[in-house]
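Weekly sync notes, structure subgroup
Attendees: PM, AL, DS (notes)

Item 1: joint prediction request from the bench team. They want all two components modeled as one assembly rather than separately. Inputs as received:
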Amino acid sequence: MDIPYTVQPRPDIGLYNAKLGIWLFLASEVMLFGGLFSAYVLLRVGAAPGYWPHGWLDVRFGTLNTILLALSAITTLLAWVACKVGQFKKFKFFHACTLLLALSFLGVKMYEYHDKWIHYEIKLADGTFADGHLVETSADFDLARKTGTVTLHGRIVNDETLLYDLRSQKNIELKEVTVAAADIKQMQNYGPWHNTFLAIYFTLTGLHALHIIGGSIVIGYLWGPGSKLWQKDPERFTNRIEVSGLFWHFVDLVWIFLFPVLYLT
Amino acid sequence: METTVHQFPPYREAEVHHGHDEHGQHEDIGFLRSYVFSTDHKVIGIQYGLTALCFMLFGFFLMILMRWQIAHPGLPVPFIGPLLEKALGQPAAKGVISPDLYNSLGAMHGTIMVFLGIVPLAFAAFGNYVVPLMIGAVDMTFPRVNMASYQAYFIGGLVMLVSFFIPGGAAQAGWTSYSPLATSVPTHGQLFWIIGMVFLISSSLLGAVNFIATIIQLRAPGMTWMRLPWFVWAQFVTAFILLLAFPPLEAAAVMQLMDNVAHTSFFLPTGLAVGGQLANISGGGSPLLWQHLFWFLGHPEVYVLILPAMGIVCEILANNTRKPIWGYKSLVYAVLAIGFLSFIVWAHHMYLTGMGTKISTFFQATTMIISIPSVIILTCFFMSLWGGSIRFNTPMLFALAFLPMFGIGGLTGLPLGFNVSDVHLHDTYYIIAHFHYVVAPGTIFALFAGVYFWYPKMTGRFMNEFWGRVHFWGSLVFMNVVFMPMFVQGMAGMLRRMSDGGANYSAAVNSRAGADVIGGLSENIMAMHTPILWGAMCLGLVQIPFIINVFWSIKHGEQVKNDNPWDATTLDWQTPTPPPHGNFTRAIKVYRGPYEYSVPGHAADFTPQNEPPDGLPAPAISIAH
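Output from the run, pasted for the record:
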């Protein structure tokens, strides 16, 4: 028993099975990310005045990652074209580039996550706010017992909303600030629990990163052990590259939406 | 049953054909790969069917426990009370169902019936078994994806079941899992629920892609869109609904998971107090967001429940009235319209959330509009009965009962769709009665009809007709005994989700301001709990003949005399019985529409879709692929 149209397109439809399948899958992916983007809209609209962050993410890293993914889209396409014209070595080269670009993207993303992880906001007993990246904590630092000190590279402000709108403030002066544990009311890093912006930021980019990882695994398989199929059935192999490429382009496209929504607003 | 043997000749010759074993059912691939890890759409369909039926029985059992608690609040459950205490511990102390356990039972009854019972049975089981046969395909487009879909479903079901036995028990926030309640219950039941749902959503996603791709790509030559049996159309639209409506719930589930695990505040508002204390959260989230995302799935889901059932009814009606279905094209366009409209009615579940009158008005309008295609479908079915020489066999009885029962369910939905009358009826037993009429005597009757109808194709034997009728009449009577009084209770103001059936609520109001105060529940209303309980018990009893019938008839049922025992026109009956791996023993070509019954001038009163027109030679016996 053979299932028809696994390699050749069905004439009246113009698609082979897997290509139709991936398009349908991508349609559902659009709805998945659509649900999260609509959550972003509702959370942003519903945020208390002055408490939706602006300028928290570094546009330079965002731009770098956008360029990395855009390049990987090009190499994916070139890899498929190389298969189409029967140049297997070129395919190997281009898809190696795709993989490297994907890994670099993840590296940059990890650095950005780490940057948020060590960024603390401290509510002080006198009603002011210390905010900045963790430099060090003293050896006897203990929040519960209120001993020791913590040092941040940042600043102290009177109005919490100043911490939210970084874009309209020019030349923010950052210096080392040391706070005693006894003066701390609450200390929290910029994790997803910190506010709804960071929650949706981590969820959206995390889910996107999972897609990057999944795509990399598939592309890595097709580049490595899966490429044996090229010897047996080049046409089928080329189809696989096309289908995985469609997925990869979708993942890139999601980033094209994530970048302005999260970094530029 | 009388059979007409003067079918088109080539088929009879091809029937017992052992010529191509290399792609026949005689491949020896071992028990595990034939029955457990099978990629054959028919085996997967049966796997889905049996699993889903078991889950439905289990969900029914949960409901009996709840009805006992409602009718006899605070009394230990007879017979199985000690067993419950042993299995579940504190929530069932002394065999009494605690309010917490009642909440778990309610949440899991809904979840199991919808996501583990009806959808897998209506969509995955019947769809898997019948759709490829009906379109003349050898299998689904992606057989291994199909297997993965079943496995994901199975794991999701296991996770849901296991959650009963963790400390604190299963999820307690209803099948809708509204936040912040869902996040505030201090047990891990909700976590299990979310993880189970992620598996179930993935399963239905894989299934939906597969169904759509199969229907588009693997239709036999000549099977044009307007020659598809309407059942296939219904499954096609259902698959699209699942494909596009489920992912937002997956997004919502991910966010609720984050709320649970990473302590985010997606659905938790500022100033949320839990247990009298301000919750330690950042706040700023939106509880309405969950409801929007949930009902964006939840309402299309209603059509996922009902469309395959309508498809089954359509096939059985055409077959047993022996005439073409009335208004085939209207049916096709109506189902497409429903599919589209089902995405823009969801907020009629949220009239009372304070989302605003303008939004309510919009959704009220779309809700009224979507009733039009539903009525078109039902009207077409009723018109199809007109002038038919109807055969009253068990599948037909169930299919016929579907029409008025679904009609009651549909029409009682109108007052819920108008936001003014919904203010009164919202969250009462009225709505429970309404959607159960749609799904229980509606969809489930159609599913029973389908089981009786396709059973001979799956096994080569009929199910017992007498016990089928006992099953039918018992189910019909007791379904109504259970659900009809709930309309009355609901209109009198009885709220859902009260674990004592409203006893405390009535007592509190009555003692303060006299017996006839508005809002208190009268004795008569409360007294209906008892007949409902007995009705539900009897409904369970009359399912026993069905269960025995399913297994007994495999070996002892009346044998079919040929491969097309119902004299049907569609391709699913033009296969050997049961169909082998690969389905057809000869190349299939389709020449005509799906419902050519009683064509004037034709010898038999049915003309199969693959019967060539006069003068054309039949296709060769060998298979091209």
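Discussion: The beta strands of chain B are 273-274, 277-278.
Action: AL to compare against the crosslinking data before next sync.
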